[in-house]
Design brief:
about 90 residues, mainly beta, two-stranded antiparallel ribbon, 11 strands, about 5% helix, about 40% strand
Length: about 90
């Protein structure tokens, strides 16, 4: 699956096969779409990209998992909503 992003402010177009999360590392890569595991949502919110992560599918081991920048996340926790802003230079 490829992403096609048109940044209206700079009139730049980005075409990529993956978007890497370099802030928290959870999840390592994100997939931008209007639904995630039957959760329907807008793929953008203002200037931000939106990604919904279900810990059940994003965490490999059960129990408490300490994730830098987020805190303690369990597999049974509610969805994590990520708002991401693209870097000025990429």
């Amino acid at each position: 699956m490829n992403h096609y992003l048109h940044l209206k402010a700079s009139n730049k177009v980005i075409h990529t096969s993956r978007i890497e999360n370099d802030v928290t590392g959870f999840p390592k890569n994100v997939y931008i779409c209007s639904f995630s595991y039957s959760i329907k949502h807008s793929p953008t919110y203002g200037d931000y990209l939106v990604h919904v992560v279900l810990p059940e599918f994003g965490i490999k081991k059960s129990g408490q998992n300490e994730i830098d920048g987020i805190g303690v996340v369990n597999k049974e926790d509610n969805p994590v909503i990520m708002l991401m802003k693209l870097k000025e230079k990429y």
